[in-house]
Amino acid sequence: MSLFSFLGTLEIGFIFGLVAVGVYLTFRVLDFPDLTVDGSFTLGAALAAALILAGVNPYLATLCAMFGGAVAGLLTAWLNLRFNILHLLASILTMTALYTINLRVMGKPNLALIAEPTVLSPFESLGIPNMYMKVIFVAAVVIAVGLLLAWFLNTQYGMAMRATGANPRMAQANGIVINEKIYAGLALSNGLVALAGALFAQTNGFADSTMGIGTIVVGLAAVIVGESLLNSRSMLVIVFSCILGSLLYRLAVSVALNADFIGFTTSDLNLITAVLVGLALILPHFRREWKARKAAQGGAA
Amino acid sequence: MIRCEHLKVTFNAGLATEKRALRGVNLSIPQGEFITVIGSNGAGKSTLLNTIAGDIRSSAGRLYFDDRDVTALSAAARTRDVARVFQDPLAGTCGDMTIEENMALAYGRGNRGGLRLALNERLRQLFREQLSRLNLGLEDRLDAKMGLLSGGQRQSVSLLMSALQPSKILLLDEHTAALDPKTAALVMDITDQIVAEKKLTVLMVTHSMRQALDHGSRTIMMHEGQVAFDLSGEERSQYGVKDLLNLFAQIRPDGEELDDDKLLLGT
Lengths: 301, 267
Description:
The structure holds 2 protein chains of 2 kinds. By secondary structure, chain A is mainly alpha-helical. Chain A has helices spanning 3-29, 37-53, 58-83, 87-106, 130-153, 156-166, 168-173, 178-204, 215-229, 235-258, 269-300, and strands at residues 110-112, 206-208. Chain B is an alpha/beta fold. Chain B has 10 helices and 10 strands. In chain B, helix 3 packs parallel to helix 5 and helix 5 runs parallel beside helix 6 (181-198). Classes of the chains: A mainly alpha, B alpha/beta. At the A-B interface, helix 6 and helix 7 of A face helix 2 and helix 3 of B. Chain A: Keywords: Cell membrane, Membrane, Transmembrane, Transmembrane helix.
């Protein structure tokens, strides 16, 4: 792998670290499997690109993208909480609706950001080569978000959110308004995913209506890889294991795609991802069965 | 402290499965009184507790805490006054979170501070002090996952958690029923200690006649969604388990057999 493609892998790994922590918030903290992210990632990219092309300040555009993602999360939560639609289905509905909305936001299926200013522009004059600068910038953003999120999950509000997912009845008996926590959690999660989309569009120079497909699986893959590496009760370690999981996942994929003798092409990415995530989910199951069998044999001997 | 006025609860109203769980309960509980609640399955004991806690909305009647009408308040809003311990030891705590995190959650009941850190050294010290009262060695395991504790330990911690914030009402729903007799006795000891110390108004549902008479100062028997008997003072102190069983027979004039094994055996 060349240095250039290695740096590119790190950059995407960090950006998808935001998706991973967003997915961690819904799947693990709130126990709310949310597929909205496939749509909100693209929404973030689409809003940022369209606003920048319209002459809006890129930082403001990125903020608007996050806000848009948060609204998408709120919509999913509302469908689930207000009308009792199954969480998976509610999020698929939002995701489907977002596909059209993203096309409307962009006006066409693909927007290019070539000469336009981006959030990276102010740092281009620092004299650091562009390919390093991009990685440092996204790493700084993602690490800052990770620190904030770990802190948040240890605040009274964040802990109440964790209790809502872990034991809603107990949460309620301790005065926690659980619906409010689910709304807040989904808004936060999808806001982070939209931020990832906005950063992706600006570092890679385009937004595309199909770029969000499979985001949920990639995020989940990162969460699972991180969980299997580091097992901790510390929120700081858990949040950063999601980000680390995302980096490792990207590196693994990149190695697989670069190994010419295997003959993979970029279009094989989704199959590789699905197989990797599938394996990560299946292996612990086998390990448990194997342990149980071994324990049974040990008991018989 | 608690006043129920003609409280009614009907499940599945209008359907074939309609169940009138509470049929006009009138009950007045003064400040600091410890009431034990007995009755056969389906008599409405748990429904009464859940209605007071706000988990179940009453279909008619009014509920007052300290002359304040709380009938329309949500369960979360009522937790300012009400703390509770469930029958299932797994229900009252979060198994995935640590002991100190669980206690921090309970500490936040009634006055959630939002974006302040939920734990600090001062609180950890307080939690250690409280846990050391249990004599279970848990004060040294603040960062252990709750899920690692036994049912009795979890129930004991739940009790401590219910007393971390000054509340006025404690609702105990058969909180020792899932424990072995020795652990149950320990948990009841802690219950009596906390109740006496915090001067709480308590409603304790129990299946054990012995427990119902040995603890608290007043015993009510529920039957078919109503308070069938209300014992207190001199009269109650002279009652034994046998007398309670006789009372049961009286409120079932149709000669229906007492078929609740738990009730008979739970001496």
